[in-house]
Amino acid sequence: MTAVTDEPTAEELAQLDELYADFAAANMAPLWTQRGGLMPQTPSPHAVPALWRWSTLYPLAARSGELVPVGRGGERRAIALANPGLPGTAYATPTLWAAIQYLGPREEAPAHRHTQTAFRFVVEGEGVWTNVVGDPVAMRRGDLLLTPGMHWHEHHNTTDHPMAWIDGLDIPLVRQLDAGFFEFGPEVLSTTETPAASRNERLWGHPGLRPVGAPAPAASPLMAYRWEHTDAALAAQLELEAEGHPGVVSPGHAVVRFTNPATGRDALSTIRTEMHRLGTGARSLTTRVAGSGVWQVFSGSGSVTVGDETWDVGTGDLFAVPSWAPVTIRTDGGLDAFRFSDDPVFEALGLARTSVEDGS
Amino acid sequence: MTAVTDEPTAEELAQLDELYADFAAANMAPLWTQRGGLMPQTPSPHAVPALWRWSTLYPLAARSGELVPVGRGGERRAIALANPGLPGTAYATPTLWAAIQYLGPREEAPAHRHTQTAFRFVVEGEGVWTNVVGDPVAMRRGDLLLTPGMHWHEHHNTTDHPMAWIDGLDIPLVRQLDAGFFEFGPEVLSTTETPAASRNERLWGHPGLRPVGAPAPAASPLMAYRWEHTDAALAAQLELEAEGHPGVVSPGHAVVRFTNPATGRDALSTIRTEMHRLGTGARSLTTRVAGSGVWQVFSGSGSVTVGDETWDVGTGDLFAVPSWAPVTIRTDGGLDAFRFSDDPVFEALGLARTSVEDGS
Amino acid sequence: MTAVTDEPTAEELAQLDELYADFAAANMAPLWTQRGGLMPQTPSPHAVPALWRWSTLYPLAARSGELVPVGRGGERRAIALANPGLPGTAYATPTLWAAIQYLGPREEAPAHRHTQTAFRFVVEGEGVWTNVVGDPVAMRRGDLLLTPGMHWHEHHNTTDHPMAWIDGLDIPLVRQLDAGFFEFGPEVLSTTETPAASRNERLWGHPGLRPVGAPAPAASPLMAYRWEHTDAALAAQLELEAEGHPGVVSPGHAVVRFTNPATGRDALSTIRTEMHRLGTGARSLTTRVAGSGVWQVFSGSGSVTVGDETWDVGTGDLFAVPSWAPVTIRTDGGLDAFRFSDDPVFEALGLARTSVEDGS
Amino acid sequence: MTAVTDEPTAEELAQLDELYADFAAANMAPLWTQRGGLMPQTPSPHAVPALWRWSTLYPLAARSGELVPVGRGGERRAIALANPGLPGTAYATPTLWAAIQYLGPREEAPAHRHTQTAFRFVVEGEGVWTNVVGDPVAMRRGDLLLTPGMHWHEHHNTTDHPMAWIDGLDIPLVRQLDAGFFEFGPEVLSTTETPAASRNERLWGHPGLRPVGAPAPAASPLMAYRWEHTDAALAAQLELEAEGHPGVVSPGHAVVRFTNPATGRDALSTIRTEMHRLGTGARSLTTRVAGSGVWQVFSGSGSVTVGDETWDVGTGDLFAVPSWAPVTIRTDGGLDAFRFSDDPVFEALGLARTSVEDGS
Questions:
Q1: Which of A137, A232, C349, D360 could connect to A198 by a Cys-Cys bridge, CB 3.0–4.6 Å?
Q2: pLDDT tens profile A314-333
Q3: Domain Cupin type-2 spans what residues (chains A, B, C, D) (predicted)?
Q4: How far apart are CA A179 and CA D107, in angstroms?
């Protein structure tokens, strides 16, 4: 063997060129020329920290409401957040899809189902019901609504005003894995009932109580997590902190995770969903996780640092956090934010890693 | 070998007697003489179906309140249901302990902890707080309160009236296994606070919401299951049935199981706890399970058949169900009943078996 | 309330007597008079440390071979070790049954199946095949053979000499739980084949290799653990120790646990099975576990201390270890011992506890 | 809203163009124009069925052995199979990396460790030891050797002849997830010992036997699966089939899966590894799975159909199977093949799906 580090001769270089050409012709590629890019010492995402302002998103969604119909084929009037570091895609991060969906007065979105896991989170408005496997689920400000994989779902706006919300899905992950199946359902709504509480909530929405006659599916049987409960849970954590008791993740920072009541695990198999509340004057720990996430400010305002970017943020603003990018959130008057991430994927595959920096 | 079935001779019988005597001297015992008793074709419990009436229990408990102090050593003024089929014990079934505990005005029961898993269920009254690892938990009608194994606990009556409730424990199981450890705590109450909601409820009592800052222990982190939630969950099942939707276990029969919100599994590792509601005119399926249980009527009235016994029952009445005894409950005006059982033990050991008979 | 500790008056004592009589009449029993016995501070087993010598057991078994037939009803010529602390039972410990089973030349034991979990361990001899669900399994010195719950099994001696082995079952546990079901099978053997290796071994007996076409049952699919593998695994641990590498549980003490290759967990759901080897001059750590066990010396000799008892032991001798009794084994020339215990029950129910004392 | 399906006017088209431009400026992308591509009705992989012949691969690897050194930075002389459907990558499938690695006489590859899970499979030759966390593991024909995530590893050829083998890793998956961490180790080998069996095999390589003194890590503790065991297990399945007993996955088709002996689950958390044997004249079922895989013929010859491609294959030939592509293997004289796939990822995320077609 001739070591190429010993100044290869012209002949050796020619042999090497020929070897690489033969590799290419044989559909082969050497590791040694690309090892560092393929296997970096720490995650080096193409995705970048990115911000989308609600004040931009919402008007664009409303304009599409004027120009673009909802119907079979396109299926949904949803506009995705496209991470600038992932050009040519419509992905917020390498694993997560985030979009604003807009449904005009009296509009309907037809039934379909798919492998991809989905949720809706409502930052403002109400009046739309999403029927999940025929069970009508009201959508209201602050609610998290689930559509686990292969659950039929359709939406309908029962009011004379439009409504918009955030969709989160694992489309990029499922696309990358070539794991997706998709089916179209009937054109006609399965139901037009508009109950205040869905049947799944009535069965499963009682703390610690399992309905023995309703067998638990693999996915969460609870499809709606209502703001009144989320708000109460976050408030309790900060009150307990004020009383000197544990419960917050760090000073002034309360977090609840949305879970499957039949297992206590993440509500969705591929997407973690959480609500964060920072109290007056609070600052989160600076945290890195292996894996990516998307946040949406739900109420209040503050400042967010993701890697080298710092933004002032307010209600409805969304931002993407690439893998291993440090995140810090600060607020003067208090801030509530919804977060979703691919943590369950990392945990299921033994890839989870977290680093918390004091940063003070 | 001489087959004893071929009319053994006198000599053979003498040899056999000598053999059995030598077995006994050697601390040995033949299987063949006792196989049927040790390994019956179906469970043949010593425990029998048995009923205890609240109208008997409560006055006896009250009399003990006059005569017997609560204090170190005896620890609790609790009077156990002793199954007549298990003489010499104070066991309701071979695995379960059930007792009425009585705490007089302003009385305290001192702190201790033990391997045995415990719960309290309140059929009437209020005014006592049980402090579980220093967290004061109010006890009120219809509530289920947990004390998982090795959790410090103490009780105190903050009122001028007595209060009684049901204790359930796995004392017989733990005694049989020689698994028990017990520790005495301080004589002085860890706290005299009397909050409406305990800290564990404030953290964990929100449906499907997990407090991220409060690591879940092996046992249930939720110690109190409040009647308002249980009642609402049972009512919803019967309403869904009336609307034509699934949810009940059989016509007119709603059931919720108390579960650990961090895992979705039974709230206690060795004891299943459930609340049953039979609607007006309902009749349960006739069901046998391998394993034993104890029921207490919480409200309403009806008739219960356990094996060959049938009793009319009303509020507070308790009955024990031996392993594999068929149980049927009937009611005209509706009936709520609390049930606890050793099902989790049978499931954990691969011994669970159920048989449902139509019985119509 | 009158405190009885303040020297009760004669009237009070009479009232108390009347109360206790009324308790008894109502099938009730006070906790406070028996709390210490029911809930001791550490396990206080009725079972005692006990030794059974092979030199006693085997001749008694042989005598029963002359006098007692094997047949339907008694089912097996098995003679149990009856713990002197558990009079009136045939239990080695509160959860475990241990017996010597003896099968004469050309004898057969007919098919049955039962809830109870069983194994055979062979301390000497060979020539019997046990058919487990129709799969003939040779029994040879040092082998562990399984019969998980509800597996049909029958034995037949294909030789002109008798054979004896140890049976282990969870009969006491299942009896206490009232969990047992038992079925008789056909009188005629399912097969008289005598292959060297059973079909389950041929499918599942390859290290780390799972047969994809053979779905794994809940119980272990591997029914035979052969001495050649056990011996090699123990030898390797001591060799690694001599080379300076980890692997032994303590100096000179090698242990392997028999596991279900489909799960890596205990081979049987209610009984732990292990083989221990102490090297020349070795002494085990002194260990207490919550839960009981039975040991049989397989080869070599040594001295065993269980609680307050110390015995010199040799091949075939068995001893019972009550819950929480400290065990120490010493040997000059080396000693192999088989151990079985109820550890999996304790682990499944959250009751496991271990204490290791240096004891030096 | 104006329905665009009703022949949009020129003005509407202009408004739509403007809307789409504004989307792009805001880093947004509409779902409705790309829904079908993102969420196809069945998986529509970019990866294609592809074949690499050993007769091409090996000489190219040997030429690189002349021209390219092994050393720090490039780390390994490994040449990857680059799927023609995934241009610009060196990926065999969207989740799997497959490469031929070549180590010249007396060469060493320096220590490193990484998040990526890796294995080696040896189709010919011997003489290299891979040290995994300091434990030297011989590599010989037919062996599967593991390097779970974050395990230090290094290779050294102890002979005067070169050796080549196949590396499999989850590099594409980990790259896509931005999950990778990588560390360089010392330049000097941790050990130059060349034992026939590694320490992990001596502890864990006994069927169904768990070393109690060696705590099981999260990853498989067994790093080497030897051909003698794999061969025997496959042979046994075909023999059992010939005797009329179950065990094969379909007529003439035996399969073993390499598993973690401490859990019975896949040996690696993100990669399934299996060995297949088709007997004389056998034909596999035609099977589709959601997820991708790579096969290497180990011995024998036959014909393989993947989707629309059919190839004659022999020893050493590799082929990639995209998600949901039907695979059929036929052989006249018998064929052994190693398969690895991303099945564990699909199972962990709830995305697994299989379809078997008779195809006769």
A1: A137
A2: 999 999 999 999 999 999 99
A3: 101-167
A4: 41
pLDDT at residue C43 in the model:
97
Write out chain A residues lying below 8 Å of D4, CB-based.
67-69
Q: Say which residue the tokens 């007056």 belong to.
A: A280
Which residues on A lie below 8 Å from D84 (Cβ)? 27
Q: Please list every residue in chain C whose beta carbon sits closer than 8 Å to the beta carbon of residue B177.
A: 94-95, 291, 323, 342, 345-346, 351
Q: How distant is the Cα of D143 from the closest Cα of chain A, in angstroms?
A: 23
In a domain, B138, yes or no: yes
Q: First vs last Cα of chain D: how many Å apart?
A: 54
**CATH code assigned at C107:** 2.60.120.10
> Is B152's Cβ below 8 Å from some Cβ in A?
no
Task: Determine the Cα–Cα distance for residues D329 and D314; give it in Å rounded to an integer.
Answer: 12
Q: What is the mean pLDDT of residues C78-99?
A: 96
Chains B and D: 3 or more CB pairs within 8 Å of each other: no
Its ipTM equals 0.95
Q: Distance between CA atoms of C339 and C318, rounded to whole angstroms?
A: 9
Q: Are residues D316 and D189 in the same domain?
A: yes
Banded pLDDT at B2 (limits 50, 70, 90):
very low
User: Hey, are the CB atoms on D209 and C236 less than 8 Å from each other?
Assistant: no
Report the C-alpha gap between C60 and C345 in whole angstroms.
Answer: 32
Q: How far, in Å, CA of A110 to CA of A122, rounded? A: 20
Residue C18 lies in a domain: no
Q: Each residue of B221-270: pLDDT tens digit?
A: 999 999 999 999 999 999 999 999 999 999 999 999 999 999 999 999 99
Same domain, D30 and D54: no
What's residue B1's pLDDT? 38
Structure tokens at A106: 């009296």
Q: Are residues D62 and D199 in the same domain?
A: yes
pLDDT the model gives residue D6: 64
Q: In this structure, is residue D101 part of a structural domain?
A: yes
Q: In this structure, are residues A338 and A329 in contact, taking their beta carbons and an 8 Å threshold? A: no
- D64 is written with which tokens? 């690189």
Q: How far is D357 from chain A (nearest CA, A)?
A: 18
Contact D290, D330 (CB under 8 A): no
Q: Does residue D147 belong to any structural domain of this protein?
A: yes
Lowest pLDDT segment from A235-239, B162-166, C145-149, D73-77: D73-77
Give the model's pLDDT for residue D3: 41
The total number of structural domains in chain D stands at 2
Residue A1 clears pLDDT 80, i.e. is over it:
no
Task: Based on the fold, state whether residues D15 and D117 are members of the same structural domain.
Answer: no
Q: Which amino acid does the sequence have at D256?
A: V
Query: What pLDDT score does A217 carry?
Result: 83
User: Which residues of chain C have a CB within 8 Å of the CB of D205?
Assistant: 207-208
pLDDT of A267 higher than 90: yes
Task: List CB contacts of D233: < 8 A, sequence separation 6 or more.
Answer: C203, C206, C209, C211, D254, D256
Is residue A303 pLDDT above 60, yes or no? yes
Across all residues in chain B, what is the average pLDDT? 95
Q: Where are the beta strands (DSSP E) in D12-59?
A: 28-30, 50-52
Q: Which of residues 245-304 of A touch B (CB under 8 A)?
A: 245-250, 253-264, 267, 274
Residue A10 sits at the chain D interface (C-beta within 8 Å): no
Calculate what percentage of chain B has a pLDDT beyond 90: 91
* Mean pLDDT over each residue of chain D, to the nearest integer: 95
Per-residue pLDDT, A166: 98
CB interface of A with B, residues 157-196, below 8 Å: none
Lookup: tokens for C311: 């015995």
pLDDT band (50, 70, 90) for residue D216: confident
Query: What is the model's pLDDT at position B6?
Result: 64
Query: What range does the domain containing C80 cover?
Result: 50-207+216-357
Rounded-to-integer distance, Cα C292 and Cα C172, Å: 12
